[in-house]
Write a structure and sequence with these properties.
Layout: H1 8-18, H2 20-26, H3 32-39, H4 44-68, H5 71-89, H6 94-108, H7 110-122, H8 125-139, H9 141-156, H10 160-176, H11 194-205, H12 208-238, H13 243-267, H14 273-297, H15 301-314, H16 316-329, H17 335-360, H18 366-398
Helix pairs in contact: 1-7, 1-8, 2-9, 4-6, 4-17, 5-6, 5-10, 7-8, 7-17, 8-13, 8-16, 9-13, 12-16, 12-17, 12-18, 13-15, 13-16, 14-15, 14-16, 14-18
Length: 400
């Protein structure tokens, strides 16, 4: 176990790395309606482009990090993120910014992917779940501060300044990596070819226990990204919320995540990850059912939407940490590749959300609501499938 990772400075660095996905998108959510008009295109495509790059690049960085260690890919990733952010700031049409968002994502994805791998390198199962809960708590500052900062920035200047801010953040993170220790010593590194790396992914995809937890997380994030991508138009365009106040509504959900992350640190000491996950995904699914009902029946207005979304999103404080820990525990010898595949599916799930929102948008919150409902219940199915499989297995075993 690397004791250096206990220090507050190192936790802050890892938390910021974990936050790079939300930081890269949440900060400009209040500006999306303005960007759509300014660039004369669908601003949701900037989210789709980022998530495509974020998902695909991890499949390459994962085996590279298993072979070369965690720090070098992080250094390269921060350089790419900074260049990509500058490209976004200088873009003049939707095609340019989508391209640079993909490029930006190729660097940004190293942050959360390798932060997870570094935790797996350094801690045991229960302790890893605790550490991930701690990181989720700290990293929650980004999705709170991001929309708030973005809303204030577009009040006084243009959306371009949001991406210049990301350039500064990328540069600061590059410098901070000199402090971060390497968690994968040379004797534990795995030298594999590109074909070997994809064989590892095939093995992971064939690992039922790994995929069960990974798909549980993936389906939850399809629902989560449906909210994150659709909420600016639901709150700002449909309900008429001022862009500068949108950040506060978004931040409310992150407060729920922070509270549940802290609670999860204690709960994992007394209850199994499986039990906590079942409760969390159950609550999340129930919240989306409430959301779908109030939207379809047009009752409760924005308050009913905010409350049901808060119930759903808060469960991320339990689901993200515990499902990730359980999945990586099922593939301990391929931490980098496992983390890459988890991240690829988790963040790639947002591609599904943004495309469904773009294709089925009807000018009301209903599209966002039914997408969240369907995939929240799909997350529940993943855990129920294990319960049935285990029961059948136990019955067969008792009959021998």
């Amino acid at each position: 176990m690397n004791n250096k990772l206990h220090g507050p400075l190192f936790l802050a660095i890892l938390s910021t790395l974990m936050a790079f996905a939300s930081l890269s998108t949440d900060i400009y959510l209040p500006a999306m309606p303005v960007m759509a008009k300014d660039l004369q295109g669908d601003a949701e495509l900037t989210v789709t482009g980022f998530l495509i790059g974020f998902a695909l690049a991890q499949l390459v960085w994962g085996p590279i990090s298993d072979a070369l260690g965690r720090r070098l890919p992080l250094f390269i990733g921060m350089v790419m993120f900074t260049i990509g952010s500058a490209g976004c700031a200088l873009s003049t049409d939707i095609q340019q910014i989508v391209f640079w968002r993909v490029f930006q994502a190729f660097g940004a994805c190293t942050g959360p992917m390798l932060a997870r791998a570094m935790i797996r390198d350094s801690f045991t199962r229960t302790r890893a779940a605790q550490m991930l809960s701690t990181l989720l708590f700290i990293m929650a500052i980004a999705p709170i501060a991001g929309p708030l900062a973005g809303g204030q920035i577009i009040r006084v200047t243009s959306w371009h300044a949001v991406f210049w801010l990301l350039v500064v953040i990328g540069g600061l993170m590059f410098l901070s990596l000199f402090i971060l220790p390497e968690t994968l010593p040379p004797e534990k590194r795995v030298k594999v070819s590109l074909s070997g790396a994809f064989r590892n992914y095939f093995m992971l995809l064939s690992n039922r226990e790994f995929m069960r937890y990974t798909l549980c997380l993936t389906f939850f994030y399809v629902a989560a990204y449906a909210f994150m991508t659709g909420s600016p138009f639901v709150y700002i365009s449909f309900f008429g919320v001022d862009p500068q106040y949108f950040g506060w509504l978004f931040a409310l959900n992150i407060v729920g995540v922070m509270v549940m992350s802290l609670l999860n640190r204690r709960l994992v000491l007394h209850y199994s990850l499986e039990s906590l996950l079942k409760i969390a995904v159950g609550v999340a699914a129930f919240a989306t059912l409430i959301l779908a009902l109030v939207v379809k029946m047009q009752v409760g207005g924005v308050v009913a939407v905010v409350v049901s979304i808060f119930m759903f999103f808060s469960m991320n404080g339990i689901i993200a940490a515990n499902s990730t820990t359980a999945a990586m525990e099922a593939a301990p010898s391929m931490a980098g590749s496992a983390s890459a595949l988890i991240g690829s599916l988790q963040y790639g799930s947002g591609i599904v959300s943004s495309l469904l929102l773009a294709f089925f948008r009807d000018g009301t919150p209903w599209t966002m609501a039914w997408i969240m409902l369907v995939f929240a219940f799909a997350s529940v199915v993943m855990l129920l499938y294990r319960a049935k499989s285990t029961s059948a297995g136990e019955a067969a075993h008792s009959g021998l």
